[in-house]
Design a protein that fits this description.
This protein is an alpha/beta fold and about 120 residues long. The protein is built from five helices and seven strands; from the N terminus they run βαβαβββαβαβα. The longest helix has 13 residues. Keywords: Phosphoprotein.
Length: about 120
């Protein structure tokens, strides 16, 4: 199973995702601090990042771009999430591996995780 970091300023969504992903066997860390994303990725040996597009006034695409330029964490796949419309291409241009539009079906999320980590899904 994958070690997953969720960065979302909506505490309820973060905990809901954590519960569901842990039920599916993943190890999950939740953060509401986009500025601590790299630190959390490294400290928790994260294998997959679920990143909200807009987190506490910080643009998640900027966070994604910064991470993808950092050799310590650039290899970690990023699935970006947003309730905003028509931002999937912007997220992918920022380096996101995939995109989920909120609200999303949990089956869609687990399917995307299985695509990225078939041996861990």
């Amino acid at each position: 199973m994958a070690k997953i970091l969720i960065v979302d300023d909506d505490h309820t969504i973060g905990l809901m995702l954590k519960d569901i992903l842990e039920f599916n066997g993943h190890e999950v860390t939740v953060s509401q601090e986009p500025r601590k994303t790299k630190e959390n990725l490294v400290q928790n040996d994260i294998e997959l990042l679920l990143l909200d597009k807009l987190i506490s006034g910080v643009d998640g695409t900027d966070v994604c771009k910064m991470l993808k330029k950092d050799p310590d964490v650039a290899h970690i796949p990023v699935i970006m999430m947003s309730a905003l419309h028509n931002v999937d291409e912007i997220c992918k241009e920022a380096g996101a591996t995939d995109f989920l539009s909120k609200p999303f079906d949990m089956e869609a999320l687990t399917s995307k995780i299985d695509e990225i980590y078939p041996e861990k899904g």
